[in-house]
Structure formats: structure tokens, C-alpha cells
Amino acid sequence: MILVEGLFDYAALRQAGFSNVTCSLGTHLNAGQFHQLCDGLRTIYIAFDDDVNQSGQQAAQHLVHQLAEQGIPARRVLLPEGHDPNSFLVGGGDAHQFQSLLEAAQP
């Protein structure tokens, strides 16, 4: 499951062929969203923005720890500096390149 921050990120990944994508609409999850992610045995790939102020990556790292505490494997996807999934794909990246980022994701 790929977790992204915004609807454009969600739409870009779906259009690129990724079907297991969901959107948090920000960097924090409410109890219902957290429960939905934790309802089965799957790895959560958190692909939050690589903002200049690092808020997206800090939130992703926090969620990795929260999910790990619940026994859910989670990995942080490291996007190129200044990119989110949408800008990565719109800016010339393709599904194969994004898949490579998923495969290199860090716990």
C-alpha cells in the first residue's frame, strides 16, 4: 500500500498504474485512517513530499514508527529533493522509476 499526502499525488500514481494507493490528505492520520492501514498484513510505503523544510519526511518517519509499534511494516520512500509523487511523475519520472524508489524505500 502506498500512502501519499494529496489527491494529485494519488491521481498521478493511479494514472501511472499503481492500484494500491491511498491518500491521507495531509501528514497526519486520524484513528479511522490508521485502522484502515493496519487491517491486514501489508507493507505501507509512505511517499510524502520532500519539502524544503523537511516536514513531509519528518511526518513520514513519525508514521513509520507509529505503524511499527502496531506491528505493521512501513517504509519511507525517498523522493528527489523538492518533489512529491505528482511532481516526480509529471516532471518526467515514469512508473518504472517510481517502482525503483519503492524498492529502495527505507524502514
Question: What does this protein structure show overall?
Answer:
With 107 residues, the chain is α/β, with parallel strands linked by helices. It is 43% helix and 12% strand. The protein is built from 5 helices and 4 strands. A 4-stranded parallel beta sheet has the order 2-1-3-4, sandwiched between helices. β1, α1 and β2 form a beta-alpha-beta unit. The chain is globular. It starts with a strand and ends with a helix. The mean pLDDT is 88.
In short, what is this structure?
With 107 residues, the protein is an alpha/beta fold. The protein has five helices and four strands; from the N terminus they run E-H-E-H-E-H-E-H-H.
- The H-and-E topology, N to C, reads as EHEHEHEHH
Strand order of the largest sheet: 2-1-3-4
Number of strands: 4
Shape descriptor reads: globular
- Can you give the mean pLDDT? 88
Q: What percentage of amino acids are in beta strands?
A: 5-15%
Distance between the termini: 14 Å
Overall helicity: 40-55%
Radius of gyration: 13 Å
Total helices: the number is 5
Biggest sheet, open or closed, and with what strands and sense? 4 strands, parallel
